[in-house]
Structure formats: C-alpha cells, structure tokens
Amino acid sequence: MNALASLAAILILAVAPAAADDVRPDTPTSVKGARIVTVEEAKKLLDRKATNLVDARSPLNFGKGHVPGATLVSYKEKSDYKVDFDATQDFFDLAKLPADKNASVVIYSDGPSGWKAYKATVLSVRAGYRNVLWMRDGFAGWVGKSLPVEH
C-alpha cells in the first residue's frame, strides 16, 4: 500500500505545475483608449452594419462557430496573462484591420478570460485605431444570449 501512496504523491506533484499553468486570471475590466461593449451593444452595431467585427481566437475555434460577419484575425500569444504583457512575444496582424483608423472595430475572443481579445484591443489602440470596442464577454457571452452563430 505504501508504494501505491508514493506513486499517487509523485503523480500529483508532477501534474500540479501543469494544472497551475492552465489557470488564467480574468482579463482587466478596462483598456485605455478603448471601450468595453456588451454583447447587446455589439449586436446592435452589427445589425446596423456600423462596425467591423474581429474574432481574435484560433482558426480552429473560429471554424467551430463565430459571430456572423466576423473576420478572423487570430491573436498568437506567448506573452503572460497580465496588463503589461510583452507584445514582442506575440503576433497580431494589424494589416487585417480596416485601413481607416477611425472605423469602428469590435474585437472579441472567448470571454472574460479571453486574453487574446484584450491584447488585440491594446495593440489596436497602440497602432492608432480610435474607435476600438472590446466585447469582453466574447463568444461565450454571445452564445449565452442565444444569438445566431455562423459556421
């Protein structure tokens, strides 16, 4: 029985660091130079064709379902999940955003723990976009409101 207990302890110690790495803090509740919009506000803008919707998730998740009319501009992140992340470790193709830096852009990813959208919003503001909106509740919030999904 001692051998079994020892094996269990070793497995727990080996798995614990990996499990800790999967824990993401929620994203901040504001972004300097951008505005957070609710799912309902984003839907109204989309219905009026008054914004460009950007999905910052992976191509795999985008393919499983996305907000109708959204453009995939996948945020590739290696930086930490923190406000002062190191953007040089990441990649976000700003050339896929509208050429007009005054155009309305709504950026989303998974939800409140979706750092890709937060980081894409920060980089868009830094690049000079003046009407950046962040749908912090993300795709999870969209689906949670039973709104239409495109595949």
Would you kindly provide a written description of the structure presented here, covering whatever features stand out?
- Helix content is 36%, strand content 10%.
- The protein is of the alpha/beta class.
- α3 links the parallel β2 (52-55) and β3.
- The longest helix is centred in the first third of the chain and has 20 residues, at 2-21.
- It is globular, with a radius of gyration of 18 Å.
Describe the structure using short key phrases.
alpha/beta; 151 residues; 5-stranded parallel beta sheet; 36% helix; globular
Topology:
Layout lengths: L1 H20 L13 E2 L2 H9 L4 E4 L3 H6 L6 E2 L32 E4 L6 H12 L5 E3 L3 H7 L7
The N- and C-terminal alpha carbons lie at a distance of 52 Å
Number of helices: 5
Which term fits the overall shape? globular
Mean pLDDT: 90
The gyration radius over C-alpha positions equals 18 Å
Order of helices and strands: HEHEHEEHEH
Low-confidence stretches: 7-21
Kindly report the oligomeric state of this protein: single chain
What portion of residues belong to β-strands?
A: 5-15%
Strand order of the largest sheet: 1-5-4-2-3
Helix content: 25-40%
Strand segment count = 5
Structural class category:
alpha/beta
Largest sheet: 5 strands, parallel
Question: What's a quick, concise take on this entry?
Answer:
The protein is 36% helix and 10% strand. It has helices at 2-21, 39-47, 59-64, 115-126, 138-144, and strands at residues 35-36, 52-55, 71-72, 105-108, 132-134. A five-stranded parallel sheet has the order 1-5-4-2-3, covered by helices on one side.
